[in-house]
Sequence to fold (524 residues):
Amino acid sequence: MNSFWGMDTAQLRGHAERLRTASGEVEDLTARLGAMVQGTPWTGSDAEAFRARWTELAASQLEEVCGELLALGGDVLDEADQQDVASRADGASADPDVSAIRPAEASETSVGYLQEDHPWIPNWLENPIEDAASGLAGMVSDGIGRSFTTGMGVLEGGLDRLGVNMDGFAQFQRDAGHFGEILEDWATGERVPTIAEVSAAGLLALGSAGVGFHEAATGHDSPFLDDRPGGIVESVTTDSTPAQSPRTLQDLVMQNDALRIDNPGGPLENGQIGVQEVRSVDGADPAFIIQVPPTEGASPTDVPGAYGEQGSSRDWGSNIRMVAGQHPAAMDDVRAALDAAGVPPGAEVMIVGHSQGGIVANHLSADPTFNSASGEPGTYNVTHTFSVGSPVQTVIPSQLSTQSVNVNHENTIGPGGSSGDLIAALDLNGVQIDGGILGAPNRHEVSLPGYPVPSLHPVTVLESNHDSTSPDGGADGGYSGSVGRATATDPTLAALQEDLTGMYLGDGTYVAQTQVVTVGRGEL
Fold:
C-alpha cells in the first residue's frame, strides 16, 4: 500500500509561535538580568569588570539567541505557507485557521532605531552607528538609574532610622523605575512608546512620589495608587447544566454586562470574572469565553477610594496602570480566575471586555507569558479579544494569530448634538512620541456612530455613549445596540462573527459549563 505523509502546517505554525514566544521570554530575561547586574550596589574595579563582561559576553550572546529564534520562526512560517500553496492544485492558501478578518490597514508604526533599516545607508555604516548610539544611551540610563537607586537607598536608610514610614517611597521606586524603563527602551532604540503610555507612566511616578512624601510626613499609610497584587479568589460558582451558546457579538456584550455588580458609586470588596466552557457537537477540544466587566465600585471622584483603596481590583487606578504598560491587580485577577475555573494551559480562549475589561483583555493578549501556544503552565492560546469602549491602541498581541477587535463610538459634533466615547479615545489613537501610529495587521479598531445628545458637557456625552446597554439595561442601546445593528454591515464585525461561529458562537456549539469567579486583591 502506498501512502504519503505530508507536513502538518497547523503544527508547524504552532511551533513558529513557540519560537516567537521563546524569543520574547529570552529577551525579557536578558532585560531583567541586565537590570540586576547594573543596579546592584556593588562598586569597585571588580564590579565594573563584571558588568563589562556581562555586556560583552552574556548580553550580546543572549541578544543573538533572540534574533536566531525570531529568524527560525519566520523560516518555519514561510515553509508552512509554501506547503499550503503546494498542496492545492490552484495554488491558493489552504490553511483552515486563517481568519476571515481582513488585515488592518497599514499604519506608520515607528520602531526603535535598532529595528529600523534605512535602505539608503549601507549596513556596514548604519549598524555600528546605531549600536554606538544605543550603547551610549544605555550607559547614561544605567548611570541615572544607579544614582537614583543610591540616592533612594541613602534617603531610606536615613529616614528609616528616624522611624519614618517608607512604604510610599518603595511604591514610588517601582513606578519611577517602570517610567525609566520606558524612556530607556526609547533612548536605546529598542522601541518607540506611545504618548498615552509615557503620559500615564509619568503621572503614576509623580503621584507615587506624592504618596511617599505624604506617608513620610504623616506616618500614615495612604491607599492612593496602591499597587498591591490581586488574584485572591473568594469563591467559584459553577453551573454544569448544558446551555445554548451565545449566538452573536451582541450576545457577548450583554453577557459581559450581566456580570457587573450593582453597587453604583460605592466601593466593592471583589469583582467577578465569567468563564464559559464551549464545546462543539463534533467532539473537538473545548474553547473558553472569558468575560471581564468594566471599572466598578467607587466613583472617580472618590479619592482614594477609586484609586487603590477598595478590594475590587478594577478601579480607576488600575486603568492608569494598564495604560502605562504595567501589570496591575486586575490582570492578576483574570489569571487567578482561569486557574480556579480549571481552564487547562494551552486552551483556546477568547477574552471579552468592556472599558477596563477590554484593556485587561488586550494587555493579557500582549503578554507572551500569558498568550502563547506553548502549552506551558499559566499560558493560554488567545485566539481573539473582543472589546467595546476600551482605549487599547497602545498594545499589540504577542501572537500574530490573535485577532484583536475593539469597537468605539466616534467622537463627533453635529446638528443633532455631540456624541462619542471619550474614554475609548484616551489611547490617543496609538500615537507614538515621535509621531508614528502603533498598529499591526491583527489589531482592529471599529468606529461606529454614537448617540447624539444636545450638550457639549463631557459627562453627559459619556453617559450616553460609553455604557454597554441602554439606561434601562436594554440591548438596543449602548454598545450592545451599536454592535447589534452594525454586525451585518461592518466588514470587520461581520468577519469576526464568522470567525467565532462554530467555535465560540452559534450552531454546532453549546456551553457545557458556566463559572463565575469572585476575585480581588483583598484589604490593605
The longest strand covers residues 509-520. The chain has two domains: 9-98, 232-520. DSSP finds twelve helices and eleven strands in the chain. Residues 9-98 form a domain with the Helix Hairpins fold (CATH 1.10.287).
